[in-house]
Amino acid sequence: DQQVKQNSPSLSVQEGRISILNCDYTNSMFDYFLWYKKYPAEGPTFLISISSIKDKNEDGRFTVFLNKSAKHLSLHIVPSQPGDSAVYFCAARTSGNTPLVFGKGTRLSVIA
Amino acid sequence: GAGVSQTPSNKVTEKGKYVELRCDPISGHTALYWYRQSLGQGPEFLIYFQGTGAADDSGLPNDRFFAVRPEGSVSTLKIQRTERGDSAVYLCASSLAGQGYNEQFFGPGTRLTVL
After folding, report:
1. What DSSP designation does A83 have?
2. Closest among A68, A59, A66, A69 to A37, alpha carbons compared
3. Residue A34 has pLDDT above 70, yes or no
4. Which of A64, B12, B20, B86 is the most exposed place for a label (fewest CB within 10 A)?
5. Residue B59 CB-half CA count within 13 A
6. Tell me: the pLDDT tens digits for B14-24?
7. Within 10 Å of residue A32's Cβ, how many Cβ atoms?
8. Do residues B37 and B100 make contact, with C-beta atoms less than 8 angstroms apart?
9. Is the predicted pLDDT of residue B82 greater than 90, yes or no?
10. Are B12 and B61 in contact (CB under 8 A)?
11. Where are the alpha helices (DSSP H) in A1-112?
12. Is the Cβ–Cβ distance between B35 and B90 less than 8 Å?
């Protein structure tokens, strides 16, 4: 029973264009959402997060949108760069220092 | 470096053997997590320590898996009678304790292969 779902295993985007990665969740107790980026042979690296009291959080080229009623969040990368090519994981948790629940990841390829 | 470190980076063992995987968290981080990532999957939670004690071990798949953190810093994940299905990347993460949402910092992982 996947509580966090990333339904697109891969995405290919041209350099300079927008990348949109999607994530759906089923557990209404989740109130904090994160995106991690992972390069081969490295651990996941925190990218951006959003609390359930917000619907948007922006950090440079990265913006995360949260639609609580739809239990959906998305990560927008604008403009996409070749160095953004990696696997992106959506994760969620309930309050406090609780463990993260991860999706299966989406492999983003940014083509020059 | 100041990040989370894990040793060994790779471990190959035979079915039925015992293995230990080590995690050195970021200094000062009292919360420590173990996750397991199988091929094509996201990381899956195994166990969470707050200080020396296991605050949540609900993710451990069975009693062949055990983890310790005797001094509240370094942690060791122990797997007895390994099976081929245990092959995965084992990730460790640490974070500050306390209220609020504290980012989890991940180590590079240990790739375990059980032949």
Report:
1. G
2. A59
3. yes
4. B12
5. 22
6. 999 999 999 99
7. 19
8. no
9. yes
10. no
11. none
12. yes
